[in-house]
Design brief:
This protein has three domains: 102 residues, Fumarase/aspartase (N-terminal domain) (Fumarase C, Chain B, domain 1); 249 residues, Fumarase/aspartase (Central domain) (Fumarase C, Chain A, domain 2, Up-down Bundle); 98 residues, Orthogonal Bundle (Ribonucleotide Reductase Protein R1, domain 1). Helices cover 59% and strands 4% of the residues. The chain is mostly helical and 474 residues long. Bound molecules: arginine.
């Protein structure tokens, strides 16, 4: 991909070096060291379908505005269609073009000759790239939304399988209170549903048409921007040409939404790692999402979870990248903005890798009832014991103290809390005597007691499942 540059020839020769986009005022060719820095084609090549779509719409708009004859506009549109056919197969070999816009324009020249030079009338690569990039975002966010739904359904499948299982719930990574395994799985679903909403709002933010803004000052030809907007499928048009060519807010919002999604996926990855370890053993990640060790024959590593956790670092990094890119830019378009696509494409590609794999891992993961039962410590029910006293009229702070003392006593005696003699319970409080304490040591009763919306009771969890199912099928 090198350009024949001949500083001595100037004029004619120089004007071909960037696909003829801007060579006229230059007398020398571009320094060879400058060319690779200047070129963005390897990154922005994927924008060719959007560049063609935007250019077709622009050609038609120029025709409607009377800037081109109808015949010229039609010929340009037909030529762009032929360029699209050529680009379908990718480009073979080195090409001299700086970016996708210059490539398309050069190929259009092959198809329609000099007429190609009329397409750029009233348009700049500044409003062109802003338009292409947003068009790409609209399509990409639609695909992403489908992948988010699949991920949600994967979690839903796991949640549905855990209704009968009561696992330890944790705070500070210490056993706290029992919860249904479904409830745990759903605790990871709600963040994804929020991520999905956030991405839908990003789509709204991206759905603004910059075309017609020119390089910075707008377009002097009577283009109907509303008609362009409708043709290209944008929600609205940009209000200020200077803002339009430099506004990358939607991209930063996308990278934030994706980074937070990455944080959520990383957290579920962490839970999958912990829960699939021998020490916890609550669930098994299926073989398809695990790998072995080249040295230790017994190993079965939950790589999917680690890779998801690792990839989220890129997502966070890309957000940091674009914010840093944008923060010092002066008014209008600046070439720094060429870097925006690297961050955004990398995030989109990363999500394209991570979401399907995590979805599959969740859909095929299995809870392991035996290990869950072994791991549950009766102290998980200490709060229920305290609540028993509360129901007998004891102020909660006192019942908390009483149960704390009982836990200490059981610990010192080396017996499970429920195995303390009845007399000991009674000694701490009469309301716990006569076998009354035993009522608290019932896993099912504990989760069923929390029947408020958002709680662990079967009906409350079923309601969550229904609501989540509805949101995912909407
Ligand atoms: N490749 C450029 C970008 O991605 C296109 C716009 C270039 N504009 C310019 N005036 N050099 O931002």
């Amino acid at each position: 991909m090198t350009t024949e540059s001949n500083p001595q020839k100037g004029g004619e020769e120089a004007s071909t070096r960037a696909g003829g986009l801007w060579g006229g005022r230059f007398s020398g060719g571009m320094a060879p060291e400058m060319e690779p820095l200047n070129r963005s084609l390897t990154v922005d090549f994927r924008l060719w379908p959007q560049d063609i779509a935007g250019s077709r719409a622009w050609a038609a708009a120029l025709g409607r505005a009377g800037v081109l004859t109808e015949a010229e506009a039609e010929e340009l549109v037909a030529g762009l269609d032929r360029v699209a056919e050529r680009l379908e197969d990718g480009i073979a070999g080195p090409v001299p073009d700086e970016d996708i816009h210059s490539l398309v324009e050069r190929l259009l020249g092959d198809e329609v000759g000099e007429l190609a030079g009329k397409l750029h009338t009233g348009r700049s690569r500044n409003d062109q790239v802003a338009t292409d990039f947003r068009l790409w975002a609209l399509e990409t966010l639609d695909v992403l939304d489908r992948r988010m739904v699949e991920l949600g359904n994967g979690l839903l499948t796991l949640a549905e399988s855990g209704m009968e299982l009561i696992i330890p719930g944790y705070t500070h990574l210490q056993q706290g209170q029992p919860v249904r395994a479904s409830h745990w799985a759903l605790s990871h679903l709600w963040p994804f549903l929020r991520d999905r909403d956030r991405l839908a709002r990003v789509r709204e933010a991206a759905s603004v048409l910059p075309l017609g803004s020119g390089a910075l000052a707008g377009c002097p030809f009577p283009i109907d921007r509303e008609a362009l907007r409708a043709e290209l499928g944008f929600r609205t048009i940009s209000r200020n040409s200077m803002d339009a060519v430099s506004d990358r807010d939607w991209a930063a919002e996308f990278l934030f939404a994706a980074a937070l999604l990455g944080v959520h996926m990383s957290r579920i990855g962490e839970d999958l790692l912990l829960f699939s370890s021998r020490e916890f053993g609550f669930l098994k990640i299926s073989d398809g999402y695990s790998t072995g060790s080249s040295l230790m024959p017994q190993k079965r590593n939950p790589d999917v979870a680690e890779l998801v956790r690792g990839k989220s670092a890129r997502l966070v990094g890309n957000l940091s990248g674009i914010l840093t890119l944008l923060k010092g830019l002066p008014t209008g378009y600046n070439r720094d903005l060429q870097e925006d696509k690297g961050f955004v494409f990398d995030t989109a590609d990363t999500l394209g890798l991570v979401l399907p794999a995590l979805t599959g891992a969740l859909r095929t993961a299995e809870f392991r009832p035996d290990a869950i039962e072994r791991a549950r410590n009766e102290e998980l029910l200490a709060t229920d014991l305290a609540d028993l006293l509360v129901r007998a009229g004891v102020p909660f702070r006192r019942s908390h103290d009483i149960v704390g003392a009982l836990v200490r006593e059981a610990e010192e005696a080396g017996v499970p809390l429920s195995r303390l003699p009845d007399a000991r319970f009674e000694a701490h409080h009469p309301a716990l005597g006569g076998g009354a304490a035993a009522e608290a040591f019932d896993w099912e009763r504990s989760v069923e007691a929390r029947a408020l919306p958002g709680g662990t009771a079967r009906a409350a969890v079923e309601a969550q499942l229904d609501e989540a199912r509805n949101l995912l099928s909407a």
